[in-house]
Design brief:
- The chain is mainly alpha-helical and 195 residues long.
- The protein has a single domain, classed as Lysozyme, CATH 1.10.530.
- The protein contains seven helices and two strands.
- A two-stranded antiparallel ribbon has the order 1-2.
Amino acid sequence: MKLQVLILFSTLNLYTSSMALADQWKAKAAFWKLQERYQVGDSIPVIVLIQSFAKAWNIEESLLAAQATIESNWDVCALSKSGAQGIFQVLPSTARGFLKKDSYFDPIDNAFVSTWYLNKALSVNGNNVMKALAFYHGGPNKRLHKEKTANYVAKVFELYNEFSKKGWLRKVPISIKRQDCSHLINTKSRGASHD
């Protein structure tokens, strides 16, 4: 009996890891397709950006739309005091674990890394959206102030519920420009919601 349970668990672990690997490849394929189709200077339809990564990682579109709205209000060049960059306010130290770049302002890079990290947060937290958002905002070690993280989670979750019920397409920009904002890294930080 003990051996059967061990075999079952190892089979489940293999299945789970192969599913995670498949999701990762779907996300990379979406990333490469977007990189090829939209050059720096092009406008990217927000629906294409959100749907590409939502589908690849199996994350709800309304959650990603709410998150980007709260994080930066879709400001591609958003830079927080703590150095978080772009529409999803990605910290370079977190992003480098998945995609090595000098900056993460590019909306395709930013969405790719952000959705990878949100997917990881959802997995670690049993697909509990509120816990995953807290993990995303505060980090796995809860390095940010708990009250600030709680406020962030409440805002994103409220907007996520609204977008889930009423739709999100009319509440976000039609498109965002794929631009290089890396010159901002060495200048004074701009105001954004993710400190």
